[in-house]
Amino acid sequence: MAKKKQPAGTPAIVALTAAAAEFTVHAYEHDPAHPSYGEEAAQAMGVSPDRVFKTLIAEVDGALVVAVVPVSGSLDLKALAAAVSGKRAAMADPALAERTTGYVRGGISPLGQRKPLRTVLDASAAAHPTICVSAGRRGLEVELPPATLAALTSATTSPIARP
Question: Could you write out the DSSP letters of every residue in 86-154?
């Protein structure tokens, strides 16, 4: 019996390939000494930091939620809580975020997570034809239309970032 060939790559790339989505992979040499994963990615790819989005895991009223915001800003926890009809939000424990998503910190992708979580994409993403998010590993980004990301993660869009 022949084995079915699996698409190569991270779970995020496998998910994009399985969905027949249009995307571009960008790889760069990750510098462990760089103070910001997202800013490093933007610099390495020569892309404006407002088009590179970071994936953050927060806890809203006890439930984990994925927040996808531009690396040029930060997450507004009150806005995230309101976006999911919650009362209180806080950043999730990094070890819990890694266990739940299956990715390591600095390489958490909103796509292909071990356990799909409720996802909120910052409204600023709509201003760009494409945005970049982690492809599931430090030094690897995927570029895709924000609508594709929202569709594949069942994300809601809301203004959850602050400058």
Answer: -S-EEEPPHHHHHHHHSS-TT---SSS-SS--EEEEEGGGGGSS-EEEEEEETTEEEEE-HHHHHHHHT
